[in-house]
Amino acid sequence: MTIIGHVQDGRIVFEPPVVLPEGAQVRVEIVDEKRHDAGTAAGEPSLAEKLLKYAGQAEGLPADFARRHDHYVRGIHDE
């Protein structure tokens, strides 16, 4: 479970308010608002930047693949 919040007066405030059971273990991760991918080390390219080298490389796909990818990948009928 992921809960989003902010620090106010030195305490973490969840948005919306959440009641956790007494003694529950939690993990706090500081989100760096300057980077969209907060889990990436400073100076390391984000996942999007790493994947960009593959953009436009697929060959032999149907002309409407981008619009109907769910149909082609999972067989979901969208029409």
Radius of gyration: 20 Å
How would you sum up the global shape? elongated
- Regions with pLDDT < 50 over 5+ consecutive residues? none
Strand order across the biggest sheet?
1-2
Structural class: little secondary structure
SS element count, helices = 2
Domain unit count: 1
Helix percentage: 10-25%
Number of strands: 2
Percent range for β-strand residues? 5-15%
Termini separation (Å)?
34 Å
| Sequence of secondary-structure elements | EEHH
- Write down the overall mean pLDDT: 83
Instruction: Outline the biggest β-sheet.
Output: 2 strands, antiparallel
Summarize the structure.
The chain is mostly loops and about 80 residues long.
Could you describe the 3D structure shown?
- The protein has helices spanning 47-51, 69-74, and strands at residues 5-8, 11-14.
- It is mostly loops.
- The protein has one domain (1-79).
- A two-stranded antiparallel ribbon has the order 1-2.
- The two termini are 34 Å apart.
- The model has no long low-confidence stretch (mean pLDDT 83).
Question: Layout of helices and strands, plus pairs?
Answer:
Blueprint: E1 5-8, E2 11-14, H1 47-51, H2 69-74
Antiparallel strand pairs: 1-2
